[in-house]
Amino acid sequence: MKWELITREQYVTTRWSGGTTTQLAIAPEGAVYADRDFLWRLSSAGVELEHSDFTPLPDYNRLISILEGELELKIGEGERFPLRPLQLKAFDGGVPVESWGRCTDFNLMVRKGAAQASAQALRLEAGSALFWDAPVVAPETFPHLTLALYCAQGTVLADGVTAQAGQLLLCREGEALPVELKSDTGAALMAAAIYHK
């Protein structure tokens, strides 16, 4: 598998009503978020307002986590609840979502009917290693697999490529094979598997 290192200099950052959003990666390459025709998108937002409403994205399913700070969410008619650091929450992008708190978050959006995704938080102690498996087998209708490793803290080595805090490792032609991850310093990661057409 071929891993691409994406650094802060390659990210695209834009402003929204509640703060800033940094696009880490998007598919297909060159797609524009505002056109709402992308297949999937990884991003990290800085939420600066104490209270904000999420942008409706009815054609997408979403996964969100927070990397720093505090956040409470209210999804649709559900109860307001706290989202803990590196805890993941999946929801329908077409459902109204309100948030309270200031934070830096991690977002994964996938187009309904064309992709599905799973993500998990991983922690490595200094000097440790682990094998990460994509959590589910690709459905027959979604034969392609993209793997993403966002380094939130520390440094991580994956198949000979090192990422530091704030950098992304991306494998656009992934395989359902274990990936060995090592860290000399310790690391906190968001690991995502995206199955798509």
Your description of this structure?
The protein has 197 residues and is mainly β. Strands 1, 12, 13, 14, 15, 16, 17 and 18 form an eight-stranded antiparallel sheet that branches. It has a six-stranded antiparallel sheet with strand order 2-3-4-11-6-9, with no helix packed on it. The mean pLDDT is 94. It has two domains: 108 residues, Sandwich (Jelly Rolls); 82 residues, Jelly Rolls (Sandwich), CATH 2.60.120.10.
CATH superfamily of the largest domain, called what? Jelly Rolls
Distance between the termini: 19 Å
Given the C-alpha coordinates, what overall shape results? globular
β-strand percent reads over 45%
CATH topology of the largest domain: Jelly Rolls
What's the average pLDDT? 94
Helix content: under 10%
Largest sheet: 8 strands, antiparallel
Keywords:
Jelly Rolls, about 200 residues
Write the layout of secondary structure elements.
Layout: E1 4-6, E2 12-16, E3 19-27, E4 40-47, E5 51-53, E6 60-69, E7 71-75, E8 81-83, E9 89-92, E10 97-100, E11 103-111, E12 115-124, E13 128-132, E14 144-158, E15 161-164, E16 168-171, E17 179-183, E18 187-196
Antiparallel strand pairs: 1-16, 2-3, 3-4, 4-11, 5-10, 6-9, 6-11, 7-8, 7-10, 12-18, 13-17, 14-15, 14-16, 14-17, 14-18
